[in-house]
Amino acid sequence: MSLFTITPELHTTGTRVEEGQGEHARRFRAARRLDWRFLLPTPHLGRVGYWGPQNDPLWEALVAWCGTEAVLLEGMELPQGGPTFDALVVRLRPPLHLPALLAHVRPGGTLYGEWYGRWLPPRVRVEVEGHPVPPASPQAIKNILAMCPATQVHFYWHWPSFSACRRILPMTGPAREALAINGLGGWREVGVRWLRRWQLLDHLVPCFSSVIVREGAP
Fold this sequence. Notes:
Layout: E1 4-5, H1 23-33, E2 48-51, H2 57-66, E3 70-72, E4 85-91, H3 98-102, E5 105-116, H4 122-127, H5 138-145, E6 151-159, E7 167-170, H6 175-181, H7 186-197, H8 201-204, E8 207-214
Parallel strand pairs: 2-3, 2-4, 4-5
Antiparallel strand pairs: 1-7, 5-8, 6-7, 6-8
Helix pairs in contact: 1-2, 6-7
């Protein structure tokens, strides 16, 4: 697992592409919101289901990028049975439903979830305004997945938030190595290493994702 930095793409005029208008800018914004797809075994999402708020930029990005391959699972209750997806995306839904969600993912497919911790800085609270935010932690998700042995899960810190993500940091593996890739160093490296040493990082990260791979042949 590696960390990557997301840098803005600029027009020849020096303005950011995502700040522009038109189809190219719209597709670019969608691609940026879906940068997490490179954390998956394959960045090609295929037939993708989405269980989360419909009035959310993540769903809009999936529709813009995947077209008719993106399927909205409506409501707060997950439907029984139903289609099986190559990828299933969950946002602002309780993690308790993860075992049931995995039944909608084909063997070899991926369930990607976006979660929020208990501490949310102002810039993060803005992107969830008007939505209930079920608190989660990597350990809580691991405990829930304990009943799903045929899975592997990885966690990533999205900094500073999902909607304005500039760095994606793996939450497993040596923090020093991960930070060195982007040359952060200094107090950031010391701070994260200290939080990891005292097992506080999982409790203080405001935005993190889970990538759950359902094992088995497609």
